[in-house]
Design a protein that fits this description.
It is a single chain. By secondary structure, the protein is α/β, with parallel strands linked by helices. The protein has a single domain, classed as Succinylarginine dihydrolase (L-arginine/glycine Amidinotransferase, Chain A). Helices cover 34% and strands 17% of the residues. The chain is built from 17 helices and 15 strands. The chain has helices at 3-9, 38-42, 50-66, 82-87, 94-104, 106-111, 148-151, 154-164, 228-238, 252-256, 283-294, 310-316, 343-354, 368-371, 388-393, 402-415, 428-444, and strands spanning 16-22, 70-74, 124-127, 137-141, 171-174, 191-194, 203-208, 245-249, 266-269, 272-276, 299-303, 322-325, 331-336, 359-365, 381-386. The strands form 5 sheets. A 3-stranded mixed beta sheet has the order 2-1-15. A 3-stranded mixed beta sheet has the order 3-4-5, sandwiched between helices. The protein is globular, with a radius of gyration of 21 Å. The chain starts with a helix and ends in a 16-residue tail after the last helix. It binds N~2~-(3-carboxypropanoyl)-L-arginine (SUG). The site of N~2~-(3-carboxypropanoyl)-L-arginine has 22 residues, from loops.
């Protein structure tokens, strides 16, 4: 299908979905920092290839843009986080501080070098203008308080989003919720929106891992990163309507099986919810509420355990897929290559598309570098439903097209290493390489001075 036919499909509609993918940063490596994310801990200390990681991500962005989907880029964050090292009492030049941490505690330095901001499904929760009381697009930056290496992302995320979605007539970017376990917020990874038209009222579906006050059931083995209280705060901040908002608890047993975010076990788009039968606690009640609040035409595709085990869902990232609207009213499912290598999953997918139900086409991408850290296709993108006027107010330099793809691929090839292990993070040259690359990137994407090294070392 050509770009024009995709847009014809949305002709007369009041909005469309844009995907903003996180560009993988030059310090991408395997730190083993995410307890509860089995890929992250299982692949700790593997040697990474940041160049390949970034190019794999760019190839996905380019392919979607070529298919006619609106595709944007979100820049990586500055790592090593030298402002944090200094805040923790280290002194001397940036290079001296990096050496002091790295030579005594390499894991600590690794956490402060994590390229985890690539998984922008955790950057924020987004409510499109059709759902909010003031008719603006609202973003709440996720605090990611459960993991050290991710809790240090929110200030830069806020700055970056405020530069890209700058116009207060259309956008409101809220700061992260307070850094408290009771308000653990993992952003859009635990949020889905159903709608008939991206530009009008939809149903927002928040999935939390536990209720901090008054909750009874919790996972026993791995942490529930996200609380009901956080989701409720986001819904209030965004001015959502109760009659179109659903809160559901993730099944604690699947968190204990490695489903650290709901987007590892469920994905939704338009009127379709594609999920595993074990995804939610009290699933029948959850489906009934979604059906009632959405109205006629809600389409549930529930995958039974007999077809795909939870272990295979976690291994293959079947549900960490992107559902993409098609001109024929159906959906494409963009899955990682690991789905092809997991026999039950691949057999299920063949059957799914042959059945010609709501999902009738598969797209397969090699995202292995990110996958080995537990980040699949859906983790790498933040969905923002926009009207034409809102899209026109977005910083235009971040929209993916052939020219930007060529420029960014060339930039990656010039600045990124093809090998990075934990021991390389103390290399003083790496800091220089990263800053040179990011400085050039802010020019390519017309972002201004967003990074601490461009702001006298400040992350405020
Ligand atoms: O938070 N991995 C990320 C993966 C995020 C996936 N996002 C979504 N499901 N939307 C995380 O666990 C691993 C980094 C390391 O161990 O080096 C990491 O942070």
């Amino acid at each position: 299908m050509t770009a024009s036919t995709v847009f014809e499909a949305f002709a007369g509609s009041k909005g469309f979905e844009a995907n903003f993918d996180g560009l993988v940063g030059p310090t991408h490596h395997y730190g083993g920092h995410s307890f509860g994310n089995v890929a992250s801990t299982g692949n700790a200390k593997l040697v990474a290839n940041p160049r390949e990681a970034a190019l794999q991500g760019l190839a996905k962005m380019k392919a979607l843009a070529e298919m006619g989907y609106k595709q944007g880029v979100l820049p990586p964050q500055e790592r090593p986080a030298t402002w944090l090292i200094r805040d923790l009492g280290y002194t001397g030049s940036d290079q001296e501080m990096i050496a002091a941490v790295g030579n005594t505690n390499p894991g600590y330095l690794s956490a402060m070098c994590s390229a985890s901001s690539m998984w922008v499904a955790n950057a924020a929760t987004v409510s499109p203008s059709g759902d909010t009381n003031d008719g603006r697009v609202h973003f709440t930056v996720a605090n990611l308080q459960n993991k050290f290496h991710r809790a240090i992302e929110h200030r830069q995320t806020e700055r970056t989003l405020k530069v890209i979605f700058a116009d207060p007539q259309y956008f409101n970017v809220h700061a992260a919720l307070p850094m408290l376990a009771a308000l653990g917020d993992e952003g859009a990874a635990n949020h889905t929106r159903f709608c008939r038209d991206y530009g009008v009222q939809g149903v927002e579906f928040f999935v939390y891992g536990k209720q901090h006050w008054g909750g009874t059931v919790e996972p026993q083995r791995f942490p529930a990163r996200h609380t009901l209280e956080a989701s409720q705060a986001v819904a209030r901040l965004h001015g959502l309507r109760d009659e179109y908002t659903v809160f559901a608890q993730q099944n604690p047993a699947v968190i204990d099986a490695g489903v650290f975010h709901n987007d590892v076990i469920a994905v939704g788009n338009q009127n379709v919810l594609f999920c595993h039968e074990q995804a939610f606690l009290n699933s029948q009640q959850v489906y009934a509420e979604l059906n009632r609040k959405f109205g006629a035409g809600f389409n549930l595709i529930e995958v039974p355990t007999s077809a795909v085990s939870v272990a295979d869902a976690v291994k293959s990232y079947l549900f960490n897929s992107q559902l993409l609207a098609k001109a024929n009213g159906k959906q494409r499912l963009l899955v990682p290559e690991e789905c092809c290598n997991t026999p039950d999953v691949w057999a299920y997918l063949q059957h799914l598309v042959q059945d010609n139900q709501a999902i009738d086409e598969l797209l397969v991408f090699d995202l292995k570098q990110s996958m080995q850290n537990g980040g699949g296709p859906a983790c790498l993108r933040l969905r923002v439903a926009l009207t034409e006027a809102e899209a026109a107010a977005v910083n235009p330099a971040i929209w993916m097209n052939g020219a930007l793809y060529a420029r960014l691929s060339d930039w990656v090839k010039r600045h990124y290493r093809d090998r990075l292990a934990e021991g390389d993070l103390v290399d003083p040259q790496l800091l220089i390489e990263v800053r040179t690359a990011l400085d050039e990137l802010t020019q390519i994407l017309n972002l201004g001075a967003i990074y601490p090294f461009q702001r006298h070392g400040s992350d405020e």
